[in-house]
UniProtKB/TrEMBL annotation:
InterPro entries per UniProt: BAH_dom (IPR001025), BAH_sf (IPR043151), Zinc_finger_PHD-type_CS (IPR019786), Znf_FYVE_PHD (IPR011011), Znf_PHD (IPR001965), Znf_PHD-finger (IPR019787), Znf_RING/FYVE/PHD (IPR013083)
Superkingdom of this protein's organism: Eukaryota
Biological source species: Medicago truncatula
Family annotation (Pfam families): BAH, PHD
SMART domains in alphabetical order: BAH, PHD
Coiled coil (UniProt feature): none
Protein name, per record: Putative chromatin regulator PHD family
GO MF: chromatin binding; zinc ion binding
Keywords of this entry: Metal-binding, Zinc, Zinc-finger
Residue ranges of domain BAH in the record: 28-142
PHD-type domain sequence ranges: 144-197
Amino acid sequence: MRRSNLQYVMGTTRQGKRNKYTIRGTDTVVRAKDCVLLRRTDAIKPIIARVEKFEQDNMNRMRVYVRKYYRPEETIEGRVCFHGDKELFLSNHYDVHSADTIEGKCFVHNLKNYMKLEVVGANDYYSRFWYNAFTGAMTPERVEVLCKCEMPYNPDRLMVLCGSCNERYHPKCVGMPFEEAMKSEDFRFVCSKCSPDLKD
């Protein structure tokens, strides 16, 4: 019998399932619940998904069962101003691909842990919403809003912290020049709610 050219490691069950998979041409091992980048021929950006399991079919081909993450622009609503560049939505879209399409591993954090990263790598992402791929609904429907504009937090947009109430504001929303906002750690910013004499 001709051997498959797909590289994988052992750990089988009688049904042909695998507990882990080694990405072809590398030493990188992928396991269930890991997040991966899947090569696609119809777009520049890869699919980002969470691995559910690996399974070998009756043709000796390794398959990966995944749960897809959607980018904001891939949803029915589309990308809006508070969506960050690295934001993803875990969905109820399950799919099966050849394990050979796995390009590498990535990391999808919750927003709180993403904000704690000292360095955000190329393969670091975050997720705070769950997306229903069939109805277009988002869960949760409401999240905490910040600033006078009452928008959810976007980690890609600079915000300044009021030294009195500890609430965050977009510099533009309080009439602060960007250059001044970049130096906000060097002085004590106080919002208009905490200092009625100020008009923002």
